[in-house]
Structures are given as structure tokens and as C-alpha cells.
Amino acid sequence: xxxxxxxxxxxxxxxxxxxxxxxxxxxxxxxxxxxxxxxxxxxxxxxxxxxxxxxxxxxxxxxxxxxxxxxxxxxxxxxxxxxxxxxxxxxxxxxxxxxxxxxxxxxxxxxxxx
Amino acid sequence: xxxxxxxxxxxxxxxxxxxxxxxxxxxxxxxxxxxxxxxxxxxxxxxxxxxxxxxxxxxxxxxxxxxxxxxxxxxxxxxxxxxxxxxxxxxxxxxxxxxxxxxxxxxxxxxx
Lengths: 114, 112
Fold this sequence. Notes:
The complex is a heterodimer of chains A (114) and B (112). Chain A is an all-beta fold. Chain A has strands at 3-7, 10-12, 18-25, 34-39, 45-51, 58-60, 68-73, 78-83, 92-98, 103-104, 108-112. In chain A, a hairpin with a 6-residue loop joins strand 5 and strand 6 (58-60). Chain B has 112 residues and is mainly beta. Helix content of chain B is 0%, strand content 48%. Chain B has no helices and eleven strands. In chain B, strand 5 and strand 6 (58-59) form a beta hairpin. Chain B starts with a strand and ends with a strand. The relative contact order of chain B is 0.34. Classes of the chains: A mainly beta (114), B mainly beta (112). Chain A binds chain B through residues 35, 44-47, 50, 59, 61-62, 95, 100-107, and chain B through 37, 39, 41, 48-51, 54, 60, 92, 94, 96, 99-106.
């Protein structure tokens, strides 16, 4: 059974940093691209980043480019999202998903507020 | 970016009624591979999204066959032949042909 478990969310102040993790199981993690998608409270879904199976390519939404970094450690079956210079508009539930968004984690909530 | 426009915003249907959701894209979703990466997902209340349909009309194995998808280029439709209680939630179309991936704004299905 495919499982994706996110962690690392929390309440932080504007301008601060946070690193999210997503631990994968139930499939060969090193063979699949992985995504981060977020959902602001009571809002729709926004794709924010993709990393290829071998980290050879990374893509970002314009809204996070230069502030967020996606990475992975295939030896630990773990996907990461490093978030810097956080803003109030980054407040959202953050989901990791296995390509092609076929499986989603339960999400981790990031709240950016002073 | 490709804009995905979903209609209606909400649906209120009784059990057993059919449902139809439209999704229109601002550009053709036919890729250079000849495949069209238009997909549907369902987010039930309080849950993370779940997969339903990929490449316009292909149902994932666990999805009941009362669901169907159709369309091409820029116009797509999700249909439920007979709504059941477990179908309530927000349906999103999303495209994976062009970067960035983009989602429709969602259609909320309520059960009368």
C-alpha cells in the first residue's frame, strides 16, 4: 500500500524558514517523480514543485521560485521542501504527491503569522 | 500558465441522479507525445485528494465505473451516471501537459 506521510509544519513568523519532509513507503520511491502541492485555507489547490526521480530536474511555481527548494534522499525514501522567506500568503496545507499526482499524503499545515 | 475553468461551482443532487462537470482549458492539452494529460481528482470533506481519472478517460483501478471522463483539446467532462452518498466532495480537474501544472477551481458536489 502506498503511503506518504508529511511532517514539519507549524506556526512561524513572516521571514522565517521551515523544512517539510515526506516519508514514502509501499512503492519504489527512487523510480518516481514527486510533487509538492499546497492548499490555502478554504481555497483550491496550487502546485508548487516537482523533482524528478533522480533529482536531475526540478521545477517550481513562480510564486515560490527562489524561496523554496525541493529535494529528495532516495536512500531514506524521503522528499523535502525547504521554505525560506516565508510570507503570510504561504499559509496552507502542504501535500506531497507521487507522480502523476496518483497518491497524496494527508498534508502538513504551515501557518505564517506574526 | 494554463487556466482551467470548471463549471458549475456547485451541484446538489439526490442519490441516483446523474452528474456532469465541465472543465475547459485556456490552451490545448494535447501534448507532443500525442497524449492529453487532463486528470480528475476528488477531495472528500476533511481528506486529502484522491485520484479518479487520468489522461481524459482512463479510470484508476479502484474507481467505480459509474464515473467516466471525456473530451479533447480544451473541453473536458466528468460524468457520474448515478450519484452515491460517497461521491460528495470537491472535484478538481488538473492538467499535466504544460508547466506549471494547474488545477481547476473545483466543483462541490452535495447530496440532497
